[in-house]
Design a protein that fits this description.
Length: 219
């Protein structure tokens, strides 16, 4: 029996999500990966912990859940298609959002700065964002708004989706199959996954604040 998620609402519990859809649990995993990757409304969905749990269920419940090979093929595809949709949304919405030089909420200079940022750091950002909750939902849209080169975005989107989709799923499969403690304490494991996923973003925020902090003047 896999432990239930004790630190959040049931609708964010990966096990509850998969079990609620029953025989369609595998399709639910793919749908959530797609939505979290491509639609701005999906930023709250538990992508990392869901993939880990899907891999674990594939190892511990092979008769009732999808086999590992099917997850390793379909999860990256869903992630790739989601990001491509997000990029398309950004491309389509960008000209409308930044149509005027000076609007109430946006300025044209923001788009120009975003474009310059992706010209310099775009490929690395697309790959690394896959492993950071919330950030991975917004990066493809911002890339589209900033008019990042489509072929470059697609190439790194594919690379990031494969690394993320196969990596976390395989990790759940291996640990769930070999270490009984993992599936008996899944709530704690999920908390650790979330913590380590957010760590790069928290470190970057802390670094930015230290850089932006005014230095005391020396008289």
């Amino acid at each position: 029996m896999i432990s239930q998620y004790a630190y959040g609402p049931d609708w964010l519990d990966p096990v509850t999500i998969i079990e609620w859809f029953g025989a369609f649990g595998f399709l639910a995993v793919l749908a959530i990966v797609f939505i979290e990757s491509g639609l701005l409304v999906g930023f709250f969905l538990p992508g990392d912990s869901l993939l880990f749990t899907a891999g674990l269920l594939s190892a511990t419940h092979p008769d009732t859940f999808a086999p590992l090979w099917l997850l390793l093929v379909c999860v990256p595809v869903a992630a790739i298609l989601g990001d491509q949709l997000g990029f398309a949304i950004g491309c389509k919405a960008g000209p409308t959002i930044f149509a005027k030089p000076d609007s109430r909420f946006f300025r044209r200079e923001h788009a120009e700065k975003a474009q310059a940022f992706f010209a310099k750091h775009g490929p690395k950002t697309v790959v690394l964002a896959r492993f950071i909750p919330i950030v991975r939902t917004f990066v493809p849209v911002i890339a589209g708004v900033s008019r990042m080169n489509y072929r470059v975005f697609t190439a790194y989107n594919i690379a990031g989706a494969i690394l993320w989709g196969t990596g976390l799923t395989t990790l759940g499969y291996v640990l769930g199959d070999r270490i009984p403690w993992v599936h008996n304490n899944l709530d704690l494991v999920i908390m650790l996954i979330v913590f380590f996923s957010l760590m790069p973003m928290l470190l970057e925020i802390a670094r930015s604040r230290r850089t932006a902090a005014p230095r005391p003047s020396i008289e």
